[in-house]
Amino acid sequence: MNPSLLRKVLDEAHELKKLYKEKPVPISPKPLDGVSVSMIFEKRSTRTRVSSETGLYKLGAHGLFLSSQDIQLGVNETIKDTSNVLTRFNDIILARVYKNETIVALEEGAPGKVINALCNLYHPLQTLADLQTLEEKWGKGGVAGKTLAWVGDGNNVIHDLMLGFLFLGGSVRIATPPGYECNAGVVKTCQDFLGPDKAANLYFTTDASEAVKGADVVVTDTWVSMGEEDMYKKKVAEFAGYQVTEKLLSGANDGALFMHCLPRHQEEVDDEVFYGPRSIVFDEAENRMWTVMATVLGMRGLSVCGAK
């Protein structure tokens, strides 16, 4: 992803949402009629699966759900060979997997035909939805000059979100407990993009209250990711003081928003914030569909201009 491509996908997502919300009947002919998508899910999901399958249906495409029980990814043949075979049947592979290496191997077998729907390092579709949601509140280009504060684990969600937010001209302040920092390679990519003149636009701390100072949006995520269930007690103890509350948000700017990509747990954010007027978490969840639709259209070289 680069700034110009990010801008293009977001613009497409905004137009898709407007078009489908305003039309009383489905678009016809559907722009992706006859297109098929292999949907590989090593990790189960609610939002990713439902948003992808529904979005593909709206566009006329067929989503083929493949769980770890349906295919043995990397067991009897290489992942590269599997992706090569799948794209002889299907036009695109959408993959929600455990390891980034799996995404890389899939891409080797099917260059330019793989959508990363989540791995241990990145979650680009979530970032697209988050940025679309913020632009709905702040206007197109509204991220420029704004500050995002992250409070929680230095995980795949913030890896893409900090890069996307910086691409659009914002600043990012990240608070993680000691030992839960963001991936060093991803941080370097962000720093290289900013350069020395804008290095101050990316700030790291272990103090949650310090991170939210002057923030326009505060974001957190699940502390215990899928596959880390045995670490629950340890992580909750080490994340003490990181729950997002109105007291914590008092250091943010007036009108600061709150986001969480779901599923949400009480220890991460209390009810007052999660269900309060600052929260835009359900708009954020809805926009998972519009952004994956925009992504698939873009991969096929199409846009809603041709769909009207």
Note the main attributes of this structure.
308 residues, Rossmann fold, five-stranded parallel β-sheet, globular, four-stranded parallel β-sheet, single chain, alpha/beta
Concise account of the structure shown:
The protein has 308 residues and is an alpha/beta fold. It contains 13 helices and nine strands. The chain has two domains: 3-123 and 288-299, Rossmann fold, CATH 3.40.50; 124-284, 3-Layer(aba) Sandwich (Rossmann fold), CATH 3.40.50.
Describe the structure.
The chain is α/β, with parallel strands linked by helices and 308 residues long. The chain folds into 2 domains: 3-123 and 288-299, Aspartate/ornithine carbamoyltransferase (Rossmann fold, 3-Layer(aba) Sandwich); 124-284, Aspartate/ornithine carbamoyltransferase (Rossmann fold, 3-Layer(aba) Sandwich), CATH 3.40.50.1370. It is 44% helix and 14% strand. It contains 13 helices and 9 strands. It has helices at 3-22, 47-59, 79-89, 100-109, 124-138, 156-167, 184-194, 208-211, 232-238, 246-249, 271-274, 281-299, 304-307; strands at residues 36-41, 62-67, 92-96, 114-118, 147-151, 171-175, 202-205, 217-220, 257-260. The chain has a 5-stranded parallel beta sheet with strand order 7-6-5-8-9. Helix 7 (184-194) links the parallel strand 6 and strand 7 (202-205). Helix 2 (47-59) packs across helix 12, helix 3 crosses helix 4 and helix 6 (156-167) packs parallel to helix 7 (184-194). The longest helix is centred in the first third of the chain and has 20 residues, at 3-22. The chain starts with a helix and ends with a helix. Residues 4-136 form the Aspartate/ornithine carbamoyltransferase carbamoyl-P binding domain. Its EC number is 2.1.3.3. GO terms for molecular function: amino acid binding; ornithine carbamoyltransferase activity. Belongs to the aspartate/ornithine carbamoyltransferase superfamily. OTCase family. One of its GO terms (cellular component) is cytoplasm.
